[in-house]
Design a protein that fits this description.
Layout: H1 5-17, H2 31-34, H3 36-50, H4 55-68, H5 72-84, H6 89-94, H7 107-120, H8 129-138, H9 141-163
Length: 174
């Protein structure tokens, strides 16, 4: 069987991006305890970023970024928050494949998810004009600023959770 070199290149590229399976680790720093001013600042940023946005949209953005960043801790937290807010299981299952299942989402949600993909994966080629323009057409200027801020915030939270070894299912907000 002949293998297409483009397929091989894609397979190698995908393998390079896939994270290694998590193994049990030694305890890591508790950022909230050891850098409380920093932690409170992130909480403040989070609250400010959400302001005026539809809570369902907030959760979809946070779920999508957490998928892309492979952050199980945040993914578990935000899918639970979305369920509590009345989000359907069908839509929650489709967030990971939203482009293929676009009919589950509104035009505004698709625009926000496209921008979430672009900003979260910024190292893969910046934020394409198409993603930005789609979001700019779907949201007024203030809403767009809030959506961008929320995307930046969830990416920060994902990195905090991953860097400090947070374990899915141990939501520490309670």
């Amino acid at each position: 069987m002949t293998t297409n070199t483009a397929d091989q290149a894609h397979t190698v590229h995908a393998a390079e991006k896939a994270p290694a399976p998590r193994t049990p680790q030694t305890p890591r720093i508790d950022l909230a305890r050891t850098a409380p001013k920093v932690f409170r600042a992130i909480i403040g940023l989070d609250a400010a970023a959400r302001e005026g946005l539809d809570p369902a949209l907030v959760e979809l953005i946070q779920i999508r970024a957490s998928h892309l960043n492979h952050c199980a801790y945040c993914l578990h937290m935000h899918t639970n928050d979305a369920r509590k807010a009345g989000e359907s299981e069908d839509r929650l299952h489709m967030v990971a494949v939203w482009r293929e299942a676009g009919h589950f989402f509104t035009a505004r949600e698709r625009a926000a998810l496209a921008l979430t993909d672009a900003i979260t994966l910024v190292a893969d080629g910046g934020v394409p004009d198409e993603a930005y323009a789609g979001a700019a057409a779907a949201f007024d200027e203030r809403e767009l600023a809030q959506v961008i801020s929320l995307i930046l915030t969830i990416n920060t939270w994902n990195r905090v959770a991953l860097a400090t070894g947070k374990v899915a299912g141990t939501d520490e907000r309670r």
